[in-house]
């Protein structure tokens, strides 16, 4: 199972790996989206092709922001301006040397600051990689000047992280000691992602499938719908493989389902939760059913991407054959949606119990 987030006076201290995984969906979209928009919106000289180019750029920024909000592992910074100001003052009052004060507000400020800086470094690195790919697609544009802001923000984030990294590690060590000595580590502490996190982490693979299948079909078939060569099936296989590997890398962390898990029993627990609005009493069963619910939800989302790609292909190719294939997949997807709805309800119940309990 993935390691649980540790607690420090009711403040979750996520592992560095969990913070990095939380920012991966937005980072992947940035790496793929920047060169794609550059290819689409710029000509060979690096000038804009259309006057409405800010619209897709703003859409990309908004998508990345939504992914960061729903997929991130950073603890909440503060619900009001007063709380945020208090955390800023607490952060500025931390001594550069010595132990971290016991004030929960100070410890929370350290955790939030360190997590935000780690996420910022990973994301800004992804932006710079996307700009480098964009320079390869449209070398006529002044990418060096455009990357100056990202480089400056990355330097600032690195300097801030260096200041608080020692305190963050100290809090992690303290949280681990409390978990071992105080018996705080329980099965219930194993993290199961929320619905928003599951959906946000599925976005990169969904985009690859939804956009990639029509492009591959357009590339490998001629105007009459005949294949261009014996190799024509290989790009589609490669695309599905890339989407599968990408999803495995960036999917929301959750407990792993063993090969001996009774999936029929898990399905019955999801039905039970949907009907009775209750959860299994056994903590391990409750967590395992949560992981199974995540799989059901992901399968429906990825299948939806496949349906969208086939519909787009049918429109581009003007061929009824693709529409027939899409209709058959829609029938299969309908069954998966029913299961995914149960998983959605289960995850909402599970996290509603966490918030109230």
TrEMBL record:
The keyword Cell cycle does not apply. The keyword Transmembrane helix applies. Keywords: Membrane, Transmembrane, Transmembrane helix. The chain crosses the membrane at residues 20-41, 53-71, 114-135, 141-161, 198-219, 231-250, 297-315, 321-338. It comes from the Bacteria. This is Uncharacterized protein.
């Amino acid at each position: 199972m993935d390691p649980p987030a540790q607690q420090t006076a009711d403040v979750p201290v996520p592992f560095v790996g969990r913070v990095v995984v939380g920012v991966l969906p937005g980072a992947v979209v940035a790496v793929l989206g920047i060169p794609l928009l550059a290819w689409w919106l710029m000509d060979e000289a690096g000038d804009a092709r259309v006057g409405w180019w800010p619209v897709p750029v703003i859409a990309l920024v908004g998508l990345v922001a939504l992914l960061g909000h729903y997929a991130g592992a950073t603890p909440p910074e503060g619900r009001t301006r007063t709380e945020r100001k208090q955390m800023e003052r607490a952060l500025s009052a931390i001594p550069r040397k010595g132990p971290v004060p016991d004030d929960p507000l100070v410890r929370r400020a350290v955790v939030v600051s360190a997590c935000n800086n780690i996420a910022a470094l990973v994301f800004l690195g992804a932006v710079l990689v996307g700009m480098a790919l964009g320079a390869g697609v449209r070398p006529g544009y002044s990418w060096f000047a455009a990357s100056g802001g990202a480089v400056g923000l990355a330097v600032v984030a690195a300097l801030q992280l260096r200041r608080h990294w020692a305190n963050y590690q100290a809090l992690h060590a303290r949280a681990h000691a409390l978990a071992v000595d105080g018996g705080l580590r329980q099965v219930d502490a194993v993290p199961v992602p929320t619905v928003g996190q599951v959906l946000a982490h599925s976005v990169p693979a969904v985009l690859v499938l939804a956009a990639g299948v029509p492009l591959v079909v357009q590339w490998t078939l001629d105007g009459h719908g005949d294949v261009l060569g014996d190799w024509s099936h290989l790009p589609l296989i490669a695309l599905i493989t890339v989407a599968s590997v990408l999803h495995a890398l960036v999917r929301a962390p959750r407990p792993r389902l063993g090969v001996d898990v009774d999936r029929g029993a898990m399905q019955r627990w999801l039905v039970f939760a949907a009907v009775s609005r209750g959860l299994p009493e056994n903590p391990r069963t409750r967590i395992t059913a949560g992981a199974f619910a995540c799989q059901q939800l992901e399968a429906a989302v990825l299948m939806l991407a496949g349906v969208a790609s086939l519909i787009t292909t049918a429109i581009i190719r003007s061929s009824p054959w693709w529409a027939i294939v899409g209709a058959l997949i829609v029938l299969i997807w309908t069954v998966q949606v029913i299961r995914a709805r149960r998983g959605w309800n289960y995850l909402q119940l599970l996290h509603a119990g966490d918030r109230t309990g």
